[in-house]
Design goal:
38% helix; alpha+beta
C-alpha cells in the first residue's frame, strides 16, 4: 500500500469509530498477522498484539469451518466477548481482515453492519498479497549453518 492509501485507510477507520458508538479501536491486518493500518488510539505495540490475536482467531475459525462447516474454510466473521469488550473480525479483501474492539455494551448488529459497509467501500484497498519467500543467500558463508557431510 502507498502512503496515500494508508492515509485514506486510516481516515476511513477513524470514520468507522466515529459513527459506531462504543467502538474503541480498528485495525486492518494481513492474514498472517501483520498490521496494515490502525486507528491512532492503538499504540504500535497494541496494534501488533491485536493483529496477532486476530490472525490467530481467524485461523482457528478457518479450521472450524473446514472441519465442521461446508469444507471450504470460508469464515464470514468472528466475535470474541471478553470482560470489558468485544473483538469483531471480518474478512476484508483477499488476504486481509478488519478487526474492531468495542465496549461490551455496544450494539453488536451496528458494529457488524458498519464493518461490512466499510469493507464494501474499500474493496481493492484491503488486499494484502502473501509475503514472498526470500531467496537463499548466495556466496561465502551461505551454508554456515549446514552441517558438513
Amino acid at each position: 500500500m502507498t502512503a496515500t492509501t494508508d492515509e485514506k485507510l486510516n481516515w476511513l477507520l477513524e470514520g468507522l469509530l466515529g459513527r459506531t458508538p462504543g467502538a474503541r479501536h480498528a485495525l486492518v491486518l494481513s492474514r498472517d498477522g501483520l498490521k496494515l493500518c490502525r486507528t491512532p488510539e492503538l499504540s504500535v505495540d497494541q496494534a501488533d498484539q491485536l493483529a496477532a490475536i486476530s490472525a490467530g482467531i481467524q485461523s482457528l475459525s478457518h479450521g472450524a469451518s473446514v472441519e465442521f462447516g461446508d469444507g471450504t474454510g470460508g469464515v464470514r466473521s468472528a466475535m470474541t466477548e471478553f470482560y470489558g469488550g468485544v473483538l469483531f473480525i471480518v474478512e476484508a479483501g483477499a488476504g486481509a481482515h478488519l478487526a474492531v474492539v468495542a465496549a461490551e455494551d455496544s450494539d453488536v448488529g451496528l458494529v457488524g453492519h458498519n464493518m461490512s459497509e466499510l469493507v464494501e467501500q474499500l474493496g481493492e484497498h484491503l488486499v494484502a498479497p502473501p509475503r514472498e519467500e526470500s531467496a537463499a543467500p548466495d556466496g561465502p558463508g551461505a551454508d554456515a549453518g549446514t552441517p558438513a557431510r
